[in-house]
Design a protein that fits this description.
Elements: H1 2-12, H2 19-51, H3 54-65, H4 67-78, H5 83-119, H6 126-166, H7 168-184, H8 189-195, H9 200-220, H10 222-234, H11 242-247, H12 253-270, H13 276-279, H14 287-296, H15 304-329
Helix pairs in contact: 2-3, 2-4, 2-14, 4-5, 5-6, 6-7, 6-9, 7-8, 7-9, 7-12, 9-10, 9-12, 9-14, 9-15, 12-15, 14-15
């Protein structure tokens, strides 16, 4: 009976211990927090640098400075935090990001939010207890967990980047395919790349994979979704196709094969690089191409612009249409398989 009462209590507090909650919902929300702070700040920084308009640089400084707070709020919001917990997550996100980067913010905010939800509105002095528990637990979690988690993610990211420099062809295929798949899955490829500090050639390969998925699905499903679908997937997210992928996984073959071609084209032929903030975004808001430009400006690469145009836009479209044609002839893809409710 006590166990049943505790489960009922957790249900009333909307606390659900699951992979869906912490690795999909929370990480998915991280992408919004990152886009509303670090990513948009990076775009404004590039604009400020190239136009010499001071207000863009000022906006960039404040936007990037709000990254920790944005992460805390977005993660707590995804976990259905009540108001006091949500507002207290600002402090937790800042501490987590400062001490452990985005992963530190994720871990600290999850712990703080769930503990804050447990005590929320359970005492007469909720105004003190709820933010107190949330902030204390979050900051302590950031201090104890953040540095170690951050060090591990940085080391793993360095391993991937070093391997890509040493084996640009094979790692170009692997990184492009895996990050592209992550972009379409209901998790955050942007958060993964930022957590791994994935830049350089590996960042360029990641961008190639993301662009292949977004542009690929946009053109492959054009007959079903027309211009609205083209824009929604090409400049928004290929995640819109996830429901259709569950119904027919074979529609995923063409853009994934395209990513396995564009990845090594990026790393071997054009030597494209990116910054962590742009690596996992693809053509979403054109953040990926802008990130490549930001990373490579001033390095004297004469094929940067042709590389951006081909790897991010032209090759994903042509290759996916080609592989899609083969899949249709094989009977793996049928009309209506990629229809979206737009």
């Amino acid at each position: 009976m006590k166990s049943e009462n505790f489960r009922a209590f957790l249900e009333r507090k909307q606390i659900h211990f699951s992979v869906q909650t912490y690795l999909i919902d929370a990480m998915g929300a991280m992408a919004f927090g990152l886009f509303a702070s670090l990513l948009i700040g990076t775009i404004f920084a590039t604009l400020g640098e190239k136009t010499q308009i001071a207000v863009f640089t000022t906006i960039s400084t404040y936007a990037k400075g709000a990254t920790g707070a944005a992460l805390g709020v977005s993660i707590a919001y995804a976990l259905k935090a009540p108001q006091l917990v949500l507002f207290s997550a600002v402090t937790v996100g800042i501490a987590g990001n400062e001490l452990g980067g985005p992963v530190g913010a994720l871990v600290a905010t999850i712990i703080a939010t769930e503990l804050g939800k447990l005590v929320s509105k359970e005492t007469p002095v909720d105004i003190l207890v709820t933010p107190g528990i949330t902030i204390i637990s979050g900051v302590l979690a950031a201090q104890f967990v953040g540095p170690g988690v951050s060090a591990f993610m940085t080391a793993f990211g360095d391993l991937v980047k070093t391997a890509t420099v040493m084996q640009p062809f094979f790692m170009g295929i692997l990184v492009s395919a895996l990050i592209g798949i992550a972009l379409t899955l209901p998790i955050s490829s942007a958060a993964i790349c930022i957590m791994l500090s994935l830049d350089g050639l590996a960042g360029g390969a990641a961008t190639a994979g993301c662009c292949a998925q977004m542009i690929g699905f946009a053109v492959l499903s054009f007959r079903e979704n027309r211009w609205g679908g083209l824009l929604a997937q090409g400049l928004g997210t290929s995640m819109l196709q996830m429901g259709n992928i569950v119904r027919n996984p074979k529609i995923w073959i063409a853009p994934t094969l395209a990513s396995m071609v564009t990845g090594p084209v990026s790393t071997v032929i054009f030597r494209l690089e990116n910054i962590p903030a742009g690596s996992g975004m693809g053509t979403c808001g054109l953040v990926g191409p802008i990130g490549i430009y930001t990373a490579m400006q001033g390095k004297g690469n004469p094929v940067m612009w042709p590389g951006i145009i081909l790897v991010c836009f032209v090759l994903p479209a042509l290759l996916t249409l080609f592989f899609g044609m083969l899949c249709r002839k094989a009977g793996w893809i049928h009309d209506g398989d990629m229809k979206l409710d737009l």
